[in-house]
Amino acid sequence: MAKAKSTAATRSNISGWRQYKALLKKDIAQELRTKEMVTSMGLYGMLVLVIYYIALSQAGTGFDITLIAAGLLLLMIVFTSMLGLNRSLIHEHDQGQLEALLLAPIDRPIIFLAKATTNFLFLAIVQVVVVPFFYVMFVSSSPGIIRGDVDPGPWWMLALILFLGSIGIAGVGTLLATISVNSKGRDFILAVLFIPVMYPLLLVLVAALTAVITGGSGFEATFWQMCAAAAAYNAVVIAVAFALYDYILGV
Amino acid sequence: MSENSHNTSSAAKTALENPTISAAGDATTSPAAIMAQGVSRSFGPRKAVDDVSFELPDKAFLSIFGPNGAGKTTLLKVLSTLLPITGKGSASVCGFDVKTQAEELRRRIGIISHNPLLYRDLSADENLQFFAELYCIPNPKQRIDELLEAVELKHRRYDVVRGFSRGMIQRLSIARALLPKPEVLFLDEPYSGLDPHASDILDSLIANIREDHTFVMVSHDLDKGLELASHALILSRGQIVLYDECKHIDTAAFKSLYREIVGLGVS
Predict the structure, then answer these.
(1) By CB atoms within 10 Å of each CB, which of A55, A120, B177, B231 scores lowest?
(2) Sign (positive/negative) of CA torsion A119, A120, A121, A125?
């Protein structure tokens, strides 16, 4: 009896993995063909950089931009993500394919996991392009760094916290995009829900990013504490999504 | 109308009190493919489906008629697990409960709707490959080949669906629905927008698999619906007005009743 249950569970895991890969492959193939999400998010991110550049053009050499760089970077990432996340399920919903997914014998959390993974991948691609531009335009050229007063942490630390942050953003965003996709004011609802739910993660991310960008003595301790907090937040988001996704989809 | 046709509330109640009694009250040995008992579905205060009960034998073909907003598509969505039942009612398809055994049930059903449920930015092959993976179909390539051949789309296999005509999209949608070899097929106005050729292909596909499958079709076309059906059901304002076996139905009387109850002009 126990052996039969274990075999059934293994079979279910195998089909779940197969379905997850299929969803991922489909989303990537669709994006490669349409280039809708990555292109629009990337373009939007670059435009935000241009606006930052214009806004800070009169700040003068006495203003140490590294103090607010973490906030600026996070702002760009959050707004860029919202643009993409909003599209991730609307696209599916408007063409009726969500029904086709829901008709398939698939565990609902697998749909969440696959959607969140593709959102994470697209967000990561955009960040790989946009963040270096941000760094060159606003961090490495800042007067503090040029004078040697500021000693930022290594690049992999920046990459690590952005990686953890992107997991949380993709997870929360996928969950909220699913909630809002059936609503009348879906664009508005995602924006309104996203920031309050993300608030703890945003605080953690801005603290970690500030620690890496400004450096200084003992910044590593703050950084690792914030990384642990971000990982804990992500674990909670994934657990909540697994528990509630059936209910959120309404079937 | 035959003497056996009766107001469904009583017909369904009788059928449900004794599960071996079919719509027309005949004893039947074949197990029910679909059983609905007091099924309701509300959207806010509005009841789209209201206390619907019926039993459909295995391998039967049920045509559901009714005006727009009668609750036909909602009933189909409830039976296919796309919408949950509101309240205490229950339903099962292929012996699996729509509430508690949804995943097992989904393995056994297919839907062909006026909405093709296909990804327009993917090719016909990519669409079918994707659904084959979702249903964990063994040897998917062979099955896809068979289906593309059957719906006459093999020559457009690698073309993106966005460039297909309405008829071609519907044919591909039929292939998608048949991919997992479903036991019960739900057809939601499948002929809507089809050209005569696509309509013929759908007819021949249905004819080919008619013997081995149970069908539930929502239609506005009384002639087509009655021609295909073994059972007919009229739904109005979410409630069953009539449910009977077609062999007990006098077509002219049925049309007249439909016109009278539903208030629609029927050809």
Answers:
(1) A55
(2) positive
pTM above 0.90, yes or no: no
* Side-chain-side CA neighbours of residue A222 (13 Å): 18
Per the listing, tokens 């295909």 go with B228
* Distance between A41 CA and the closest CA of chain B, angstroms: 19
**Per-residue pLDDT reduced to its tens digit, A56-74:** 888 777 788 888 999 999 9
- Helix then strand then coil, in percent of chain A rounded to 5, is 85, 0, 15
Question: Of A90 and B116, which is predicted with more confidence?
Answer: B116
Please state the rounded mean pLDDT for residues B213-240.
91
The residue in chain A having the minimum alpha-carbon distance to the alpha carbon of residue B80 is A103
Q: Which two tokens stand for residue A145?
A: 């760094």
Judged by a CB distance cut-off of 8 A, whether residue B82 touches chain A is: yes
Residue A120 has pLDDT above 80, yes or no: yes
Among B42, B133, B161, the strongest candidate for a mutation testing the A interface, having the largest count of A CBs within 10 A, is B133
> Other C-beta atoms within 10 Å of A153: how many?
19
Closest partner residue to A30 among B82, B119, B135, by Cβ? B119
B207–A contact, CB cutoff 8 A: no
- Burial label for B263, CB within 10 Å (0-12, 13-18, 19+), is exposed
Are the beta carbons of A33 and B104 separated by less than 8 Å?
no
pLDDT tens-digit series, residues B36-63: 999 999 998 899 999 999 999 999 999 9
Q: Is the ipTM of this complex over 0.90?
A: no
Coil, strand or helix at B187: strand
Residue A74's contacts (CB-CB under 8 Å, 6 or more residues apart) are A165, A202, A205, A206, A209
Is the pLDDT reported for residue A195 higher than 70?
yes
Closest CA to B99 of B15, B157, B41, B17: B41
Sheet with B32-43: strands ordered across? B46-57, B32-43, B90-93, B96-97
